[in-house]
UniProtKB/TrEMBL annotation:
The gene is panB. This is 3-methyl-2-oxobutanoate hydroxymethyltransferase. It is an enzyme of class 2 (transferase). It comes from Anaerobranca gottschalkii DSM 13577. It catalyses: (6R)-5,10-methylene-5,6,7,8-tetrahydrofolate + 3-methyl-2-oxobutanoate + H2O = 2-dehydropantoate + (6S)-5,6,7,8-tetrahydrofolate. The active site is at 188 (proton acceptor). Its cofactor is Mg(2+). Belongs to the PanB family. Its EC number is 2.1.2.11. NCBIfam families: panB, PRK00311.1.
Amino acid sequence: MSEKREKKFTVSSFLDSKEKGEKITMLTAYDYTTAKLLDEAGVDSILVGDSLGMVMLGYDSTLKVTLEDVLHHTKAVVRGCNRAMVIADMPYLTYHISVEETVKNAGRLIQEGGAHAVKLEGGEEILPMVKGLIRAQIPVLGHLGLTPQSVNMMGGYKVQGKSEESAKKILRDAKLLEEAGVFGIVLECVPDRLAEHISKSLKIPTIGIGAGAGCDGQVLVIQDMLGMYSNLSPKFVKRYKNIGEEIKAGVKEYIKEVKAGSFPEEQHTFKISDDILEKLY
Ligand SMILES: Nc1nc(=O)c2c([nH]1)NC[C@@H]1CN(c3ccc(C(=O)N[C@@H](CCC(=O)O)C(=O)O)cc3)CN21
Ligand SMILES: CC(C)C(=O)C(=O)O
Ligand SMILES: [Mg+2]
């Protein structure tokens, strides 16, 4: 019951946290069970990232992820959350065509999915969409630096903002997004001192992933930090646990016991009375 009364983390908590100098914690989750664990552990916000295409669906990029995919996983995550704020990633091509389509698509993530906010990759190019969403009362989280939906344009998952030109563009985009009214910006794979400078130049918080300790918060993909997904091993991932090995060890033990006939034991079985059994013979 006491958990029910805990103050929810909202859009205004993002700004309050930055003002108080309290770091914001964010992790991805794609299902009810995981979301409930993260919420109970006290994470501030949960991102239903389009990285679900890679870790949940086995694609080799995020480009194949659809609005229906994110909607499906968002519904599950929202059911598992009590305090955490749920942010849904807008998939590739759901906010690139027109403001009208963008608002309709984001509106479904909010109205049908129950997300509290959406995240879009990009700066100046997508400003009209960002402004359209905010006009429609949909809170927006920005995402700059390494934007995985641009993998084909970037020529791979590479650190962004190392040159003067690209560092200036990221800073300018961050300021444009802030002016447009986003409540925060994810900075992915940018040099730490650039991310720190951007964070100090903004009133809204930055959430870093591979962007150093100068950001106002941090985000990681849950399967990466728990050691469950090994197709990628970006430098920014810290493995807090090795759940992948734990799962394999548990499954191997189960296989061994079933093969040996040592599972199930008495305590795992149900009984029938002798007289009823007699009637079957
Ligand atoms: N499981 C998972 N975790 C993620 O963090 C993630 C996804 N999936 N899918 C979408 C994108 C892809 N991401 C990636 C993938 C690889 C690198 C990577 O290997 N980067 C190099 C940088 C090389 C350089 O430019 O110096 C690295 O060494 O970390 C970074 C981000 C982040 N996102
Ligand atoms: C890594 C985060 C920022 C993301 O966009 C995702 O998980 O899709
Ligand atoms: Mg994403």
